[in-house]
Write a structure and sequence with these properties.
The protein is of the alpha/beta class. It is 54% helix and 11% strand. Helix 1 packs across helix 10, helix 2 crosses helix 5 and helix 7 packs across helix 8. The relative contact order is 0.21.
């Protein structure tokens, strides 16, 4: 299988992470989210010399991708209740990991400005998932077991964090700009499964996958 990457940006509560995970499962590839941040955090605490040694060791063994697979998965929801504070060193290591993954295996990458980091690569498809507020609130209430007030606050705070993060590291671009992405999908209207199918059809149109890969007949 040729390498290709599907990146996801998503509003909180839209089901974007679930869509990304289902897509990866259908395609038989890995979905990476906060394991990238875990590894980047570990690396950002090292001085440059030690980082190079750890980097070389990982690459010689099985590569970043295999190393990431051994890290713990993130919880279903991770809310950002704090204000965004930049960490350029952390982002630099994160970019290295994302680029390495794109060079070595087909995969799905959620968040982390991956669409920007991999911008211009012909084998990358970038997706943005959004939905009306009441849909996101209901999903958040159901998944987190919280009140509508808490759900609303969580959505507002997390989306603001993501917007500030994206704006800073993309040098002023805004997170919800549809021009950044190949596809922008309303997950309430398309549904979770429908959103996955839409993305798969687009990947077929782009020539990145075939129907056989999905177990379908031509």
């Amino acid at each position: 299988m040729d390498n290709f990457v599907v990146t996801f940006a998503r509003g909180f509560g839209t089901g974007g992470k679930e869509i990304a995970s289902k897509l990866a499962k259908d395609l038989g590839i890995h979905c990476y989210e906060n394991r990238i941040l875990t590894l980047a955090s570990q690396m950002s605490g090292l001085d440059e010399k030690l980082f190079r040694q750890v980097n070389e060791k990982i690459v010689k063994q099985d590569g970043f991708s295999s190393f990431l697979k051994g890290l713990p998965r993130a919880k279903k929801y991770i809310a950002r209740n704090e204000k965004f504070v930049s960490d350029d060193k952390l982002f630099e290591y994160q970019c290295q990991i994302i680029k390495n993954l794109a060079d070595t295996e087909p995969c799905v990458i959620v968040g982390k400005c991956a669409d920007y980091v991999l911008k211009g690569r012909p084998n990358v498809v970038s997706i943005y998932i959004e939905a009306p507020r009441d849909f996101c609130v209901k999903r958040t209430m159901d998944n987190m077991g919280v009140t509508s007030e808490v759900a609303n606050a969580t959505i507002t705070q997390t989306d603001q964090f993501r917007a500030d993060y994206y704006k800073y590291y993309t040098k002023g671009n805004y997170w919800t700009n549809p021009v950044n992405y190949d596809l922008t999908i309303n997950s309430e209207k398309a549904g979770i499964e429908g959103s996955v199918k839409l993305i798969e059809e687009y990947l077929i149109i782009k020539g990145l996958i075939t129907r056989e890969m999905l177990g379908e007949k031509e």
